[in-house]
Amino acid sequence: MSSDNNQSDKSKLGYSVGTTLDRFIKSKQDDFPFASGELSQLLRDIALAAKIVNREINRAGLANIAGAFGQMNVQGEEQQKLDVIADIRFTRALTKGGEVCAIISEEVDEIIDTGKPEGKYVVAIDPLDGSSNIDVNISIGTIFSVYRRVSPIGSAITKEDVLQSGLKQVAAGYVLYGSSTMLVYTTGNGVNGFTYEQSLGEFFLSHQNIRIPETGKIYSINEGSSNHFEPSIQAYIKQCKDKEMSARYIGSLVADFHRNMLKGGIYLYPSTKKDPNGKLRLMYEAQALAFIVEQAGGKASDGQRRILEIEPENLHQRVPLYIGSKSMVNEVEGYVKEHSVHA
Ligand code: AHM
Ligand code: MG
Predict the structure, then answer these.
(1) How far apart are CA 26 and CA 23, in angstroms?
(2) Residue 96 C-alpha to ligand 2 middle, in angstroms?
(3) Co-location of 137 and 272 in the same domain
(4) What's this model's pTM, rounded to 2 decimal places?
(5) Which of 74, 253, 311, 333 makes the best surface tag, with the fewest CB within 10 Å?
(6) Do 140 and 244 fall into the same domain?
(7) How far apart are the C-alpha atoms of 253 and 129, rounded to whole Å?
(8) Number of compact structural domains in the chain
(9) Ligand 1 close to Cβ of residue 126 (< 6 A)
(10) Is the distance from the beta carbon of residue 226 to the nearest atom of ligand 1 less than 6 Å?
(11) What is the number of other CB atoms lying within 10 angstroms of the CB of residue 222?
């Protein structure tokens, strides 16, 4: 066989497996000349916890860790065993790293002081979102936001360190445990997605510089509650039907959001008569996804305000959320405005 043939055969055999998350994070760190590497380490800590949680989720049916834990969280919602496991894993990874001085978690009432006052960063996290889907083998996710603390390094944690508007995020991301497991994140320079290669135990860059389509054909909302929605949202849904758009609702925010990011669409969780601020939490659900969607060219609103500009008042506050393709979110805002004028 000629050496030319050998060459082409070799290149077919040794196909590139691509860029690992670690290498990508490192290459981005070099873009910031004064970066000390702590944010990079923090992102790596999150990725490690995500791998462990991914393993637990995959074996949940076998390891007796599916089902209810037997306690309520601060929201009065029943905790699943995997909610608790994910909370432990992420809290431990973020605490051990030493870059994080405080954590707020959907599963814990108060601010978690990591006992690392030298840590520069604060993390807000929903360790396992989509609890109702855990037991039925449907996609679930993790959502996180990273802030720089405002009090001096080394001092005690204050409420101001954690109650920061979404504009102050230095990084945000989500992990989707789905038909494949993905980690998607931004540090304010676009959005990149990484797919987990189980056999190698690594995340690889698979979705570079994600851009959400300007508009789309998908609307995602729990229509079972529509009798309780404001007339503006009922009118918006009616026009989605008139336009014969597709309804797609998994009931896991990360999964619904991710699909809409790639295909174009809108996710809505409006206020209802029962829950005037909707269901979703500002600090560890809405703000992170708002940062990501804006970085991808989309929009996030509570109907009137940009999510990122809302000043949080408490750790677990809720907010109505309209998020996705920019022109679709603009349209919803138009309906809200029109109805408030005529109210
Ligand atoms: P959780 O944090 O308790 O899992 O609740 C958040 C979830 C979202 O993932 C999902 O979009 C929404 O709640 C579904 O709520 P509903 O069942 O009211 O449609
Ligand atoms: Mg949640």
Answers:
(1) 5
(2) 24
(3) no
(4) 0.92
(5) 311
(6) no
(7) 7
(8) 2
(9) yes
(10) no
(11) 14
